[in-house]
């Protein structure tokens, strides 16, 4: 019999990501921290044990038993749901053969969340290139998870004091305007507002919306996207009761005057909002996927192959990702 996760103590699945990168190092580091949840690492026991030896960190690995109720995290221990590597992993050296292993860990975590075994999942960094080199079409965690669960994914990064969601994500700048239609913008705003309410427990979230153009278009002289797309969508949603302010010039929106009482900022494209957030909190930020039927957060950095096994990797982002996932689980119960 499978013992479901408990709202009183969130049980979170953690995938270490690329085995040649710093993901396993970070899992070992967080084992020595106080955590607000039960963490179950889905991955190779041998990899975790080998990396711990390399780092000179003693941890006890416990085989995850799904029949047991969630248990508080104990320092110096890790619960592991084992999945074997295809080939032995070497620090800093990508091996396409292990891409199948990476995808298996993700699938196991996603299905565990769907089935209620886990309350949420947190993902370590993967290397998209090596997964594609192995013959698996893979554009990212978000798309992979959405293919399994359905939903309308929206990317949001957060650090203490600031949340930034994106209307468009990984697009060339030349394609942003064409992609930002009224229907897309409306959908993104509705997902953002819904999840701020139902995942974060914010009763009436205030969302600041960036314009696309300099000075938010300056009445059409610097572009018409604000007039033709953004303003009509915001006005329509305001009439439905959403607390939206904008479109605002992005160069002045990210100031205390506006951010003091805001719950989130919606940027129109990737490099409009994320440089500000990462400047404010890189290494202490979390990537959150909204719009899914499950809760998923992730670190805000990559695989850092050059740091794997050196002891120099910082676990701040992973800790914040786990804390945020736990908070979202509790917020969704309100």
Topology of helices and strands:
Layout: E1 11-15, H1 23-30, E2 38-43, H2 45-55, E3 60-63, E4 77-82, H3 99-114, E5 120-123, H4 128-133, H5 141-149, E6 154-159, E7 162-166, H6 173-179, H7 182-198, E8 206-210, H8 225-239, E9 243-248, H9 250-253, H10 256-259, E10 264-267, H11 270-281, E11 286-290, E12 296-299, H12 316-331
Parallel strand pairs: 1-2, 1-5, 2-4, 3-4, 5-12, 7-10, 8-9, 8-10
Antiparallel strand pairs: 6-7, 6-11, 11-12
Helix pairs in contact: 1-2, 3-5, 7-8
Keywords:
Isopropylmalate Dehydrogenase, 2 domains, twelve-stranded mixed β-sheet, 18% strand, globular
What does this structure look like?
The chain has helices at residues 23-30, 45-55, 99-114, 128-133, 141-149, 173-179, 182-198, 225-239, 250-253, 256-259, 270-281, 316-331; strands spanning 11-15, 38-43, 60-63, 77-82, 120-123, 154-159, 162-166, 206-210, 243-248, 264-267, 286-290, 296-299. Helix 8 (225-239) links the parallel strand 8 (206-210) and strand 9. It has two domains: 11-151 and 293-331, Isopropylmalate Dehydrogenase (3-Layer(aba) Sandwich); 154-277, 3-Layer(aba) Sandwich (Isopropylmalate Dehydrogenase). With 334 residues, it is α/β, with parallel strands linked by helices. The mean pLDDT is 93. The chain has a twelve-stranded mixed sheet, sandwiched between helices. The protein is globular.
Number of helices: 12
Which sheet architecture does the biggest sheet show? 12 strands, mixed
CATH class of the largest domain: Alpha Beta
Low-confidence stretches: none
Helix content: 25-40%
- The best one-word shape is globular
- Strand-residue proportion: 15-25%
Strand order of the largest sheet: 3-4-2-1-5-12-11-6-7-10-8-9
Q: What gyration radius follows from the Cα positions, in whole Å?
A: 20 Å
CATH architecture of the largest domain: 3-Layer(aba) Sandwich
**What do we call the CATH topology of the largest domain?**
Isopropylmalate Dehydrogenase
